[in-house]
Amino acid sequence: MRLLLVHSDYIEYEVKKSTPVAEKVDESQKSGRLEEALTVFLAVEKPDESDIDEIVKRTVDEIKNVMGQINTDRIMLYPYAHLSNELSSPDTAVKALKKIEKELSDKYEVKRAPFGWYKSFNINCKGHPLSELSRTIRLESTSTSATGESTGFESEEEEVVSEALKAEETAKSYWYVLTPDGELRDVDSFDFSDHSNLERFVNYEISESRVVDKTPPHVELMKRLGIADYEQGSDSGNLRYYPRGRFIKSLLENYVLDEAIRSGAMEVETPIMYDMNHPTLKKYLDRFPARQYSIESDKRRLFLRFAACFGQFLMSHDMTISYKNLPLKMVEMTRYSFRKEQRGELVGMKRLRSFTMPDMHTFCEDMDQSISEFDDQYKMCINTLDNIGVDVDDYEVAIRFTRDFYENNKDFITEMAKTVNKPVLVEMWDTRFFYFVLKFEFNFIDALGKASALSTVQIDVENAETYDISYIDRNGESKRPTMLHCSPSGAIERCIYALLEKNAMKIDNGEVPMLPVWLSPTQVRIIPVHEHHFDFAEKIYEQLNCRVDIDDREDTVGKKIREAGREWIPYVVVIGDREIESGKLNVTIRSESLPKKPKSSEMTVEELNNRVLSEIQGMPYREQPLAKYVTKRPKFL
């Protein structure tokens, strides 16, 4: 049984059309509204059929548990098949829903939306930390998380679930806000009036609801801009990338990899699949909170990697390392990494099952060197995202650590908040559940209030022992290094997601959206007014040392300019008689324009060239990914 529970100001629905499995309903059931209610979206699953009465009992208990934490006595039960891809039979589902309704009606005012009908609905979520919760009810023994959530996992045939993931769902978390002046406040007592984005992030983290109930704006943008789309012929959470998308993605990959190499990392390449029964790998697999894909090959069960840790650590085990080599860094751009994310959480480029992850590991002599490297990499991550186009104001910082580590390193952790000059969210544990004692992430909050982790660094105190990695110290003795895990940007796809979501919010605020010039597939578009202006347009094309194309379509100039705007092209040059006579260009500058008030400036070819080159200085460069002439390009959408 899957549940999504939303504490609502109101919930209302209206049936539209029956499906072949629709239950019979009277007129009173065809529409409904409840105010000040707990809305419970439910999906009855195939495994529930083995003991539906027990599932009903546990579901009722769970709903009552949530009702005890919020101030309402009304419940809307809403069948919602999209919560699962393993649904029970319709008869079983209706039977279970009716039993749940009956059990709850003894204590609460309950209304149930009919099963098997297409329905429209409107809901207004209250937005407090307990207003959005997800639950999974299983027949096997369950555990309870810090928020009171009963947990259960897919069967082993479907996915591999690590012990760390189970530990993560049962770990007791203490939530605080750390200010730049070092004050650690409980989240309930912190004044968020000047930090609304941090408040949204805190609510998202504490609620633990990751189910997507509305399509975020970047999905429409990634399609309209010709970046990416869903691939129906693949597994969920896998995308196809069109030329523009592959181009943007490759530039980001090159940039982040270059940043890691500039910091001293050696680039390596390792396999994408590993033996699940390899003794060392099995230990690590159980210490990493993730769900894995598994496959069979030559009578062995293999899993697809979700990071480069496995290959880099096995390689390090076979290396001879001296203290003179430390800190030692290795990096890989994993194309691809795989995680069997739950279907209801998959959406666009935010959460995928296959993704590109820059993964760097640093081997250090001791904790002091690890903290020094951690500080350097923290700042490197800030700089990396800033150059990508996501600055400190665009994300919220989460720092997670054990209580012992905090007590011994308060000044260092406070310095992290000082560096970003704003309050940060802290998650603290009494006991170390995982392989790390300290980690941070930069979390982008999108237009729907959902968070996604980008950059991260972790201090690992366990895996040198697990993988038998050692170095020779100054006295000739073998020692275990302390290790850092770092992704300077997070998944490349999430960087694109963050850029698109940031621009969606700019559009909502009446601003002009655009990508950084260095990431724009076309940096300058030349629009000749008439055919006899083409020769001059060609000359301008040859003189510009950037990504230029020519719109040679037989459309009006106005339509061509609008199309360039829809593609977010940074500079647009219209070539007419005046430009030919004067030798100067009339350039529309997107970064200085308003939605209905484009900013134009007259400049020479050299001035335009210098302006573009100054904006892309120090960043990777590739040639135009599409044909020079717009008429020569196929339409992908």
Automatic annotation (TrEMBL):
Catalytic activity: tRNA(Thr) + L-threonine + ATP = L-threonyl-tRNA(Thr) + AMP + diphosphate + H(+)
Record keyword Aminoacyl-tRNA synthetase present: yes
Residue intervals passing through the bilayer: none
Cofactors that this protein relies on: Zn(2+)
Primary localization class, coarse: cytoplasm
Pfam families: HGTP_anticodon, tRNA-synt_2b, tRNA-Thr_ED
Residues at which Zn(2+) binds: C309, H361, H485
GO biological process: threonyl-tRNA aminoacylation
Cofactor note: Binds 1 zinc ion per subunit.
Superkingdom in the source lineage: Archaea
First-tier enzyme category under EC: ligase
An example Gene Ontology CC term for this record: cytoplasm
Family per record: Belongs to the class-II aminoacyl-tRNA synthetase family. Archaea-specific ThrRS editing domain subfamily.
HAMAP family registered for this protein in UniProt: Thr_tRNA_synth (MF_00184)
Name of the protein this chain belongs to: Threonine--tRNA ligase
